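Notes from hallway chat w/ T.B., transcribed later so I don't forget. T.B. wanted the structure written out for a chain they're using in a teaching module, and asked if we could keep both sequence and structure tokens in one place. Agreed to drop them here.
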Amino acid sequence: MSARLRTAAMACCVLGLGVAGYLTYVHFVGISPICELAHGCERVQTSQWSRLAGVPVALLGLLAYAAILAALFVPGEPGLLAAAATAVSGWAVSAYLTYREVFTIDAICSWCVASALLMTALAAITVVRLVRAPVPAPAA
């Protein structure tokens, strides 16, 4: 079961890297994102909430997905804890940004929704992996 959860987390990370990578590219190149479904991507991408301390949140997402993916390769409790902590933090940021999309910006970015769903899945998967990890026996 743990191997399947790890594989699922890796797949979510790869997809998340694609989404966040695209949004980061769009930001730095200065073009409008392709947004066929919700038509609010440009409005969200150019809002005041699209940056945190001057850093594009898409880049922060890209770094978070990369960090989670890297943590999935760290054996034992440190890797499990790092992946879960980063994913839960990413989920909290995604939840806040989704709140801003709906209630402040009044626009929905389908790319952002996809990233939020991936980060939600990652938070759930990595926390389950952490909780189900065998507890090491105390040293003698």
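Follow-up for T.B.: The mean pLDDT is 92. Might be a good example for the class.
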